[in-house]
């Protein structure tokens, strides 16, 4: 798992979050984004799908972009390819969410720096489900 200095931030994120907006959440049950979002939903988090190609996922209305979400959420979980992160970061800084979590394999150091400069707390290249299993026992 992550280096140890990230673990307190991960724990804080998981404890303080009630609602997770999931960018790139698929409605296909075999996709990793779906399986992880469903697992987090089963742990008691509300999931807000953000994907212009779906109407709803896991019983929740989907939004086209993170800026379209009308409901409060504390954490943004990103399941998009890394090439999209710089563009997404510009949208994310316009939201009230304090936390940004880039899934395993999702990395862009410029996007990370941009987000942290705009007062977002960021975890990069980690699986939220694994972290939850390890830290929230």
From TrEMBL:
Coiled coil: none annotated. It comes from the Bacteria. Signal peptide: none annotated. It holds the Pfam family CoA_binding_2. Residues 13-106 form the CoA-binding domain. Gene3D superfamilies: NAD(P)-binding Rossmann-like Domain (3.40.50.720). This is CoA-binding protein. It comes from Gracilibacillus thailandensis. The lineage of its organism: Bacteria, Bacillati, Bacillota, Bacilli, Bacillales.
């Amino acid at each position: 798992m992550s280096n140890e200095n990230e673990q307190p931030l991960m724990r804080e994120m998981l404890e303080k979050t009630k609602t997770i907006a999931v960018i790139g959440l698929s409605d296909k049950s075999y996709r990793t984004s779906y399986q992880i979002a469903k697992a987090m939903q089963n742990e008691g988090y509300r999931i807000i799908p953000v994907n212009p190609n779906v109407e709803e996922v896991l019983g929740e209305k989907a939004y086209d972009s993170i800026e379209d979400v009308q409901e409060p959420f504390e954490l943004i979980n990103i399941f998009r390819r890394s090439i999209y992160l710089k563009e997404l970061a510009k949208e994310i800084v316009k939201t009230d969410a304090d936390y940004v979590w880039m899934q395993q394999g999702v990395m862009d150091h410029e996007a990370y720096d941009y987000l942290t400069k705009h007062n977002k707390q960021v975890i990069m290249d980690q699986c939220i489900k694994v972290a939850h299993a390890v830290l929230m026992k």
